[in-house]
Amino acid sequence: MTIPEPGQIVRVRNQTFLVQDVYPYLTSEATFHKVALESLEDHRLGTSLEVIWELEVSPRVEDVISFPDLSAWDPPERLASLLLSFKWTEASVFTNDSFTAPFRGAIEIEPYQLEPVARALAMPRVSLLLADDVGLGKTVEAGLILQELLARGRVRKILILCPASLQRQWQDEMLTKFNLVFKIIDRDEILRLQREYGLHVNPWESFPRLITSMDFLKREPYLQQFLSTTSWDLLIVDEAHNCAPS
């Protein structure tokens, strides 16, 4: 078994880490190595983890990665590719006053459902209460706002807070109507994350788009983990009157 060295990149528990330190210690049976790691995964960037290398399942040291010469010039083709990628990213047939969300979703939109989108885009910080009658498409309106903000790069981390009975409905609506994947955070999902990533995984950092229930979020230690996460870009609360203090 290859023992990693500080500065190397390794794969442990299906994740990529940077080795910070290696501490060998002797026992009566063998020599073990405690390895201090720092996550390189997007959803856990910078998170620390300590493991006993010999006790991990199939850990491996990645091949040596050579860094480019910082004093050398990049080939012209690489610079051209970079410029083209920026151009394609910014390319759009729509102006800033136009909506793209209606053309990105698999929905039939009523004209009144575009008014909340227009109001949201006019706000430097979006804060809206959608109080239409039952059956008039408040979920679609929220999805249109979400889709538009995503398309404009104004949001990334999104949380939908709703009653437990509506979690699956929200997940299905976002996927089928807007092609947006959301993960539901509940007890079963947390157990799955702990089995895959370790007991100290923060479920609220596991994916940029999450759905959870109000009652679940009130429980300890889930609430403490939630409060310790980075801030959210967008919060959607369904049945918001249930969040009012009793």
UniProtKB/TrEMBL annotation:
Any one GO MF annotation of this record: ATP binding
Record flagged with keyword Hydrolase: yes
Signal peptide: none
Tree of life domain: Bacteria
Keyword annotations from UniProtKB, A to Z: ATP-binding, Helicase, Hydrolase, Nucleotide-binding
Domain Helicase ATP-binding: 119-246
Keyword Cell division: no
Protein name as catalogued: Helicase
Organism: Thermodesulfatator atlanticus
